[in-house]
Structures are given as C-alpha cells and as structure tokens.
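Severity: low
Component: inverse-folding endpoint
Summary: output formatting inconsistent between runs
Steps to reproduce: submit the following structure tokens with default settings.
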C-alpha cells in the first residue's frame, strides 16, 4: 500500500468523480482508476461503487476513508516532529548538576534555552561530580555541570562556564572570624571540613594542593558530599572549610565568610558532554551555553 494510492482514493472519496479527481491530481483517468483498483485488490475490499448515477463510497470505503484521514494527520505530525528533532527544536535533554550550579547557572541557562526551543523537555538531577562523569561516559546523562578540575576527561568535552573566588568559612565565634581576609597558612593545624574525595576527587585534590603550597596542613576531621552539608558542619563548630563563594550565599547558618588573602586560582564550574554526542537538541543547548558563558 502506497501513500499515493491512499491520497488518490481520498481525492475520489471527496469529489465522488473520477474525472475531476484525475484533473486535480494531474493524472490520466485510466492511471487513477488503476491506482484505485490496485488498492482495492491489496485490501481485498470494494471501496467505491461506480454506476449510472455516479460514484459512491461503499460502507468499507467510508470506514477506510475515516481511518486513513486520521492516520495521515498522525503521519504529518510524526514527520513534523522528526524535522523538529533533526533541527534540535524537539527532544529531551538529561542534565546533571552539583548544588552550586543549580542555584543560578543551570536555571538561567534553561530559561533562556526554552525561550528559543519551547518544545524541548528536560530531566534535571542533582548529581555528584564523579557520578556525572561516569554517567556521561555510559550515555545515561547528556550534559553535566560540575566542579573542576576533573581527573580524566578522555571522551568528554569540557567547557568552563563559571569562575569564582574561594573563601574561608568559619564558625561565628572562631578566633579568625574577625579578620577581613585570611592567609591560608593561618589554617595550618585547624580542624578542617573537606569535600569528600570519592565524590569529586579533582576538586578535593585541588583544595589540598592550595593549602599545601601555602604551608597549611589541615587536620581533616570530617568530609561531606554537598556544600550545604559542609556549611552546616561549620555552623555546628566542627571546624573550618575552604569552599567556593557562591556556596555561602544560600544560607541560614551562623557562620563567618572571609576572603582569601593569598593569590590563588579561582574555583571553576565546567559543563561536560560526551565527545560525539550527536543529539541535535543537546548540541543546540551546548552552543547556547558556550555563547552565554564566554570565559
């Protein structure tokens, strides 16, 4: 059964006139009749009755007409969706992010993307850095936003989308809490709260490297997988922490945040995507992110 046969039948079903439909379709009348006959033979039913009083639909023809009209409408919708998907205007993007990227970076980016491509859906999950890397590799995640550096980016494209200073976070009653800024060496021997290494090994080692080069050997008493948890631990008086400044904005804890006096590299958030990810919607999303976050 071919689409041209169905469209020919629908034309005759509407005009109930073989000659008129032949002109509308730019076919000879014998060619049109042959298409109808071939369709009826394939279906093994009579669709049209031709007599002295003209052409009429059989009951089977009426049912077939109603069903194929619906089917063609669905086919047109499917065709349009396929074109939109190819153009990156339709699809579903699975996005993972660490908590600090979820405050502003990801919501703002998605808000702007949806203005351009309102038919694209999103699946959003708060996912730890190392888990994001594994999910990007096994293609269960399309785009990730995580703390840099990452230990291995083989097979992954990384784009820096955000830079910010690191700050020292202290209990409100800590002896250093009155300082306008703190040199990292002042943290030598302090009870320290650190981001958990199994969850973000590159970021964990980055922080330890900064402290080591400044001559500070932290006494790590507790680790945590989320920045808000680290802030709560500082609030409880368990120790001090070194963390990105944005992690301290959304807080109700009684803590003190001090700038770092040393000249140290900023903390970075990166966007990651698997090399060769050919999903058009994902490509459009990454292109927009790269145009917005030119760092």
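Observed output (run 2 of 3):
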């Amino acid at each position: 059964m071919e689409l041209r046969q169905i469209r020919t039948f629908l034309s005759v079903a509407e005009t109930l006139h073989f000659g008129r439909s032949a002109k509308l379709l730019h076919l000879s009348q014998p060619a049109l009749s042959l298409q109808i006959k071939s369709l009826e033979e394939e279906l093994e039913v009579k669709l049209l009755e031709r007599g002295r009083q003209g052409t009429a639909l059989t009951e089977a023809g009426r049912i077939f007409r109603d069903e194929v009209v619906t089917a063609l409408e669905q086919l047109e919708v499917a065709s349009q969706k396929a074109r939109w998907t190819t153009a990156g205007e339709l699809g579903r993007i699975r996005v993972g992010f660490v908590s600090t990227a979820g405050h502003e970076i990801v919501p703002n980016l998605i808000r702007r993307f949806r203005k351009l491509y309102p038919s694209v859906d999103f699946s959003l999950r708060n996912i730890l850095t190392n888990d994001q890397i594994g999910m990007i590799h096994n293609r269960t995640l399309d785009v990730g936003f995580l703390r840099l550096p990452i230990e291995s980016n083989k097979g992954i494209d990384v784009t820096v989308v955000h830079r910010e200073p690191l700050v020292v976070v202290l209990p409100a009653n800590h002896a250093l809490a009155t300082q306008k800024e703190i040199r990292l060496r002042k943290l030598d021997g302090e009870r320290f709260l650190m981001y958990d290494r199994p969850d973000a090994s590159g970021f964990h080692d980055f922080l330890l490297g900064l402290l080591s080069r400044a001559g500070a050997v932290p006494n790590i008493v507790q680790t945590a997988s989320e920045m808000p948890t680290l802030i709560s631990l500082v609030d409880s008086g368990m120790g001090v922490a070194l963390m990105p400044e944005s992690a301290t904005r959304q807080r109700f804890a009684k803590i003190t945040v001090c700038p770092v006096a040393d000249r140290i590299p900023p903390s970075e958030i990166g966007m990651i995507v698997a090399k060769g990810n050919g999903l058009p919607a994902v490509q459009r999303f990454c292109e927009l992110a790269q145009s917005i976050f030119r760092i």
